[in-house]
Amino acid sequence: MTDVAVEVLLPKIGLTMQEGTIDEWLVPAGTAVAEGEALLRLATDKVDVDVEAEAGGLFHPVVPAGATVPAGALIGWLLAEGEQPPDPAGAPMPAGSGTGSEPAAVAAPAAGPAAVSPSTDGAGDRLPASPNARRIAAAAGVDLSAVRGTGPGGRIVSEDVEDLLAALPGDDLVTPAPADGIASSPLVRKLAKERGIDLCDVSGTGPGGRVRRADLDAVAPPPRRRDAAPRPGDVLPLTGMRGTIARRMHASLQEMAQLTHGYEVRMDAVVSLRDQLKQEWTDSEPPVPSVNDFLLKAAALALREHPLLNATVREDGVHLLDGIHLGFAVAVPGGLMVPVIEDAVTLPLPEIARRSRSLAQAAREGRISPAQLEGATFTVTSLGGYGVDFFTPVINPGNVAILGVGRLRDGVEWADDRPLRTRVLTLSLTFDHRAVDGAPAAEYLRTVGELLRRPLRLLV
Description:
- By secondary structure, the chain is an alpha+beta fold.
- The protein has three domains: 6-109, CATH 2.40.50.100; 175-223, E3-binding domain (Dihydrolipoamide Transferase); 241-458, 2-Layer Sandwich (Chloramphenicol Acetyltransferase), CATH 3.30.559.
- It contains nine helices and 21 strands.
- It has helices spanning 131-140, 158-166, 186-195, 213-219, 240-255, 268-280, 291-305, 349-364, 438-453, and strands spanning 6-9, 19-25, 32-33, 38-43, 48-52, 57-61, 68-70, 74-79, 118-120, 126-128, 258-266, 311-314, 317-320, 326-328, 330-332, 335-337, 340-341, 378-382, 401-405, 409-415, 418-432.
- Strands 11, 14, 17, 18, 19, 20 and 21 form a seven-stranded mixed β-sheet that branches. A four-stranded antiparallel β-sheet has the order 1-8-6-3, with no helix packed on it. The chain has a four-stranded antiparallel β-sheet with strand order 5-4-2-7, with no helix packed on it.
- Helix 1 (131-140) runs parallel beside helix 2 (158-166).
- The model is unreliable at 89-126 and 169-177 (pLDDT under 50).
């Protein structure tokens, strides 16, 4: 247990995180917690994660559950027995924390190295590092001076040490094992106990065979978090993911001149090719691409021919982007996420199918990382599975267009005065008229349609 007060700061998850919501304190106030024990459930605009205590001590929160605070803000203390927390007088209130008797005072975000508790590496140099980062580094025999800190003010956090360890050969690591001979964090042991997993049966993929959370997930996937079904009379707060979606979509419609084209495309060739692939590809081969996978590939290839749709608007003009990174919307409890397939235009269709399934599953199970949700230059969103034919998707800020996909349905085409049954769907392209005019947007849709009429070209 610590013999001095240790600050508990709201961690920064991902490069773009500005604030987070304390969804739940996992330990009551006054509880003795061990270093590495899960302390809180943090809800960000992209993911929900458990945050571990970086030191041991008696836990004293200074903001209530449900409070939204900026990254790096003080949210609690870890204290020694009989110790009182420092006076928080004059600290600003977090958003949504209320007033009155709630313990809602919070310090402003730390700025610069002077605001970070320094640590000392083996060479005696003083480095800004979290207690958990120091513990991991010491266990692996890593010199902290070799670690690049990404925390507030260049502070070294545990993820920085783990990233360095992941890049080192396993033989370079010295990881002392606990009494049972299995290297793992207290949080992993806690999760294993909750899921009834014997760590002896788990193959560790971490440095030195260390068992990580992902190794537990491979043995027994975590239960999915499901929000309670809303009922009449409920008030759903605009915080966390829901609040971010609200702000971003409102800003999108306020800042852009958005217009939507509807375009019907023939899907007979895609349906026929998928039926053929289902019979020819075995379970050991890549997954059979879904209709949406064909659309993702066609959307990427068409962007190569129509770069105005793969762009962003800045103060000095419309910037056409080099890479084509496709985001695709995935519905999750409480909102939606947009995982990103990087360099989609260079990937064969089977690889797009594999990545889209993997990313969608990770998003629905709450396992997706912030890095996998960043960098989209164009987005595809589908409501076909809900029976929707046409809709007007809203552009993700930073992009100039988004492609909506409707349901696959029967159509009719006339040939020599005879009706022919066809398979069609409607594409809904919303574009920012500041960057793209109606004719180039229509040309893009026509290119997508032509690619879908000859889908063999999409396989490579």
